[in-house]
């Protein structure tokens, strides 16, 4: 699972994936708009996801820069006397390669001199074919296990891993919000259908009542009451249309074309209930392992990496407390005929040197170490708090989802019963045994039941979307 998350969050995901093409844009503007199309659009075009990829690219650039501390360094130097008593000049070229173990550094140089040098520059003399020198420098105490260069390399590597997790976290949040916006838009559209049907019934009844009033079969007060119902139902419809327009604008935030322009969905794109997936099965959701969920949550993985970074910083500060003891080993040899420096340069020289330094009070190092240790303890406590919060949130999501599914079933039963009552009351009214007031009351009760069923379904779908985000169900969130 962790490998899959890493692969998902890698920049190659952004580079290799095909740009939003015409087929997707056509799907977003024509025909029924389905949740997978919304999720694909947001995954490919939403700005915060694209921003997270750029942050990861920046973190990888920092990693490359830190690796540069171990680059091979080439150095060349030359000088010559143009006038004066002495004619000596020399040229030197060398390379230095830092190594990670023991904070080591190896180097090699070639030097060639010509002419005579004053006694205080005698070290520049070489034989006719020059001098070759190789050496190495080792840290025996401070900088033996860690130093600023190795710390930076490891720190930027972990920071790049955190950036990959940040990509995943942003994707999960964006896809979760996109799903929520989509289901709110669908629910708002379904509510319009209910209120339109309710208004059409009242308007159709107006025609029949007008005919009956003119014939003297029905009192005029019944027509007045029905006109009052028409006005009330128009108000309900207007409010539903306003809510739908707001939901469409919110969904447009996640629907974009290849240029990133917002696409506002229309009512004609509302899907029918037949093409939408049913609410999820609770048992299948509960089957997911809780420990796996907590283990792979990007927030907790991020904390574990942050703790590792803090521990590395503590180790670096402890390193600063140690005295510095460096060992230098060097071997040099001149070649060719003896030069102006004389026979003293015609030898193989092996040199071993040791250098020791230590600050006597080390207050700066102790202060930095204490701060690093405090930051490490703080990070460990924050990880515990966030892990507990995620576990509680997961429990609450499951509780809400379970309740939402139960309420959705009850709401469907209520709709069925209310529809039966409407049919019965209309039949009694047509037979002259019913009451016009009761017919209106039954119709509006049935409409209210349908609205409650729509909202119960919405609550269930929002809870399911929250569960998919909490458990990182990449398929459900369109991140497969």
How many strands appear in the DSSP assignment?
Answer: 6
- Main β-sheet description: 6 strands, antiparallel
**How many DSSP H or I helices?**
12
The proportion of residues in beta strands is 5-15%
Quick one: overall form? elongated
Query: What fraction, in percent, of the residue positions are helical?
Result: 55-70%
User: What's the Cα radius of gyration?
Assistant: 39 Å
Describe the fold and architecture.
The radius of gyration is 39 Å and the shape is elongated. Strand 2 (89-98) and strand 3 form a beta hairpin. Mean pLDDT is 83; it is low at 1-21. The two termini are 12 Å apart. It has helices spanning 2-9, 12-16, 22-29, 35-45, 47-67, 148-215, 220-252, 282-286, 290-296, 298-321, 363-430, 436-470, and strands at residues 73-80, 89-98, 105-114, 131-139, 324-334, 348-357. 61% of the residues lie in helices and 12% in strands. Strands 1-2-3-4-5-6 form a six-stranded antiparallel sheet, with no helix packed on it. The longest helix has 68 residues, at 148-215. It contains twelve helices and six strands. By secondary structure, the chain is α+β, with helices and mostly antiparallel strands. This is TolC family protein. It comes from Erythrobacter ani. Residues 362-389 form a coiled coil. Keywords: Coiled coil. It holds the Pfam family OEP.
Q: Helices, strands, pairings?
A:
Blueprint: H1 2-9, H2 12-16, H3 22-29, H4 35-45, H5 47-67, E1 73-80, E2 89-98, E3 105-114, E4 131-139, H6 148-215, H7 220-252, H8 282-286, H9 290-296, H10 298-321, E5 324-334, E6 348-357, H11 363-430, H12 436-470
Antiparallel strand pairs: 1-2, 2-3, 3-4, 4-5, 5-6
Helix pairs in contact: 1-6, 4-6, 5-6, 6-7, 6-10, 6-12, 10-11, 11-12
């Amino acid at each position: 699972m962790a490998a899959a998350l890493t692969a998902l969050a890698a920049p190659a995901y952004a580079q290799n994936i095909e740009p939003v093409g015409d087929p997707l844009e056509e799907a977003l503007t024509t025909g029924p708009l389905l949740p997978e199309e919304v999720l694909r659009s947001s995954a490919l075009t939403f700005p915060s996801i694209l921003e997270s990829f750029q942050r990861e690219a920046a973190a990888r650039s920092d990693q490359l820069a830190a690796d540069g501390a171990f680059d091979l360094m080439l150095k060349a130097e030359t000088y010559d006397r143009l006038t004066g008593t002495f004619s000596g000049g020399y040229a030197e070229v060398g390379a230095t390669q830092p190594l990670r173990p023991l904070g080591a550094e190896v180097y090699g140089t070639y030097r060639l001199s010509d002419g005579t040098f004053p006694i205080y520059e005698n070290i520049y003399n070489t034989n006719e074919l020059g001098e070759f020198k190789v050496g190495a420098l080792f840290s025996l105490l401070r900088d033996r296990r860690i130093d600023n260069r190795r710390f930076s390399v490891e720190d930027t590597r972990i920071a790049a891993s955190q950036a990959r997790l940040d990509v995943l976290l942003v994707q999960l949040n964006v896809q979760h919000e996109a799903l929520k916006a989509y289901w709110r838009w669908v629910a708002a559209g379904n509510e319009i259908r209910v209120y339109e049907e309710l208004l059409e019934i009242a308007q159709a009844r107006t025609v029949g009542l007008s005919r009956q009033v003119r014939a003297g079969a029905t009192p005029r007060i019944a027509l007045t009451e029905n006109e009052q119902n028409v006005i009330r139902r128009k108000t309900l419809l207007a409010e539903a249309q306003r809510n739908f327009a707001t939901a469409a604008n919110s969904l447009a935030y996640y629907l974009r074309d290849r240029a990133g322009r917002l696409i506002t969905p229309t009512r004609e794109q509302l899907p029918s209930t037949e093409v939408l997936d049913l609410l999820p099965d609770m048992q299948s959701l509960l089957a997911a392992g809780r420990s796996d969920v907590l283990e792979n949550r990007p927030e907790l993985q991020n904390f574990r990496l942050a703790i590792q970074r803090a521990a590395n910083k503590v180790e670096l500060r402890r390193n600063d407390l140690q005295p510095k003891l460096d060992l230098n080993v060097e071997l040099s040899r001149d070649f060719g005929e003896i030069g102006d420096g004389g026979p003293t340069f015609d030898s193989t020289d092996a040199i071993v040197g040791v250098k020791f330094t230590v600050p006597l009070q080390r207050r700066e190092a102790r202060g930095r170490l204490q701060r690093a240790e405090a930051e490490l303890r703080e990070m460990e406590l924050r990880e515990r708090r966030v892990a507990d919060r995620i576990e509680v949130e997961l429990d609450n999501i499951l509780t809400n989802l379970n309740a939402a599914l139960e309420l959705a079933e009850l709401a469907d039963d209520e709709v069925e019963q209310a529809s039966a009552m409407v049919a019965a009351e209309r039949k009694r009214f047509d037979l002259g045994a019913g009451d016009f007031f009761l017919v209106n009351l039954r119709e509006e009760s049935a409409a209210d039941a349908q609205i409650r069923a729509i909202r119960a379904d919405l609550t269930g779908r929002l809870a399911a979307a929250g569960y998919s985000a909490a458990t990182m169900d990449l398929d459900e969130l369109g991140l497969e």
